[in-house]
Automatic annotation (TrEMBL):
Presence of keyword Membrane: yes
UniProt keyword terms in alphabetical order: Lipid biosynthesis, Lipid metabolism, Membrane, Phospholipid biosynthesis, Phospholipid metabolism, Transferase, Transmembrane, Transmembrane helix
Gene3D superfamilies cross-referenced by the UniProt entry: 1.20.120.1760
Pathway, per record: Phospholipid metabolism; phosphatidylglycerol biosynthesis; phosphatidylglycerol from CDP-diacylglycerol: step 1/2
Listed name of the protein: CDP-diacylglycerol--glycerol-3-phosphate 3-phosphatidyltransferase
Organism: Azotobacter beijerinckii
A GO biological-process term: glycerophospholipid biosynthetic process
Length: 182
């Protein structure tokens, strides 16, 4: 049973291609269903890992990768079908590239970096998830949700920028403390 969180993470990886295909096929209701299923699997695997201490190094690495892959692919596909602007997808992708590049640079210059999501990072991911969900919901069932798209886009932009700045500031502070202690 202690492998169940990792199996749920694997399920999220496996759901990425069907979600992408359904968005590109403009089957937004089915895409929404799988996207929500992926979100529920993420919540369940996190709960199980914390509640029963079914954690692993592999799970700690794969879980955020599965989440990011699902969000990035969903944003790319939604941009391809014209439901969200390309510049927003590029901003979300640029934030993630900045975080990975910053972690690699820190590791190269200093050494081990304990990577854990910041509150702003979690908020940014939540806002992206809500945006994708609302866009899919609006495209499939509730056209009235279109009024939420622009405010959510603005929140995703603010969340992404704030999160990127927060990570850069945090790593800069850690680097300075490391440099001062050597």
């Amino acid at each position: 049973m202690h492998h169940l969180p990792n199996l749920l993470t694997l399920l999220r990886f496996l759901l990425v291609p069907p979600v992408a295909w359904l968005i590109l096929a403009e089957a937004y209701g089915a895409a929404l269903l799988l996207f929500v299923l992926a979100g529920l699997s993420d919540a369940l695997d996190g709960f199980l890992a914390r509640r029963f201490a079914w954690t692993s190094r592999l799970g700690a690495l794969l879980d955020p990768l599965a989440d990011k892959l699902l969000l990035i692919v969903s944003c790319l596909c939604l941009s391809l079908v014209g439901l969200i602007p390309w510049w927003l997808t590029l901003l979300v992708l640029a934030r993630d590239v900045l975080i990975v590049a910053g972690a690699i640079c820190y590791r190269w210059r200093v050494g081990f970096l304990e990577i854990s999501p910041s509150r702003l990072g979690k908020l940014s991911t939540l806002l992206q998830t809500v945006l994708v969900s609302v866009v899919l919901l609006q495209a499939s069932l509730l056209p009235a949700f279109a009024a939420l798209r622009l405010p959510l886009i603005a929140l995703v932009v603010l969340g992404s920028l704030a999160s990127a700045i927060d990570y850069v500031r945090d790593w800069t502070d850690k680097y300075r403390r490391h440099k001062d202690s050597t």
